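Changelog-adjacent note: as of this version, every example in the card shows the full chain rather than a window. The one below runs 275 residues end to end.
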Amino acid sequence: MLSNLVKAGFSVAVIYAAIYPVLNPPAPLELKDNTSVVEAKKVEVKKPKQAEKPVIVNVDLPDFSKYRDVKEKKRAFFAFLRPFVEQINTEIEAQRLLVKNLDLQTSSQEHRDEFQRLLKAYKVEASQSITVDNIGPLKQELLKRLDIIPVELVLMQAANESAWGTSRFALQANNLFGQWCFRKGCGIVPKGRPEGETYEVRKFKSPKQSIRGYFFNINAGYAYEELRTLRATLRAMNEEIDPYVIAEGLIPYSTRREAYVDEIQNMIRINKKYI
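Full-length structure tokens:
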């Protein structure tokens, strides 16, 4: 009898591994299929006791799977992440003010060094010497990249990509946005990764670091130039940065493209009341 139970358990494990979704080949700068983050449904096995929950490896991310009420789960998820998003946006606003106020004649060397650092960090090409002639265009391009992302958009993408904080990669890697990395050992090797591929699902030290990684991906990645243009246009019109509008620039984020954008926009509409 015991032997038969062991064989049955092994068979279930094989079936589960076989149905785990296969990731699409990676595109440059952490582009990926949205399905790379959301877990496949587990094969249901009749047991006298309820199946055990996934082990939460990092203690920083709450166990959102414990919530039975969907509304409570959504509120808890948003309440946990929102302060991190707001803090990062506040930091960006302070950096934007620094960039706007930079003056080659009156600003300190520390101020100019910070400007140079931001140019490099956000991949804005600049000559070694900043002059009166080129500082204007450099500021303009940097401010286009160095900008906030609406809280609603960040939270909905986090919910979508991490299955509301319950996916394997959220639990084991603090990865809330399905970001990839391409150096061996930089993350978790996903099951079903096609032979010959080297990408991994990036590991972050904390959920907050995952959010920072997402911000950098959106603000500096070449794939999201359209999103940044939409955002800059709203800025130029003295309009608020509308999450519905700039979400149109997320087409490269998923191989589902327009369908993915529609889903994120619908999530904002449906779940905004829980934030």
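Structural remarks: The chain has two domains: 24-40+54-82+150-274, 85-145.
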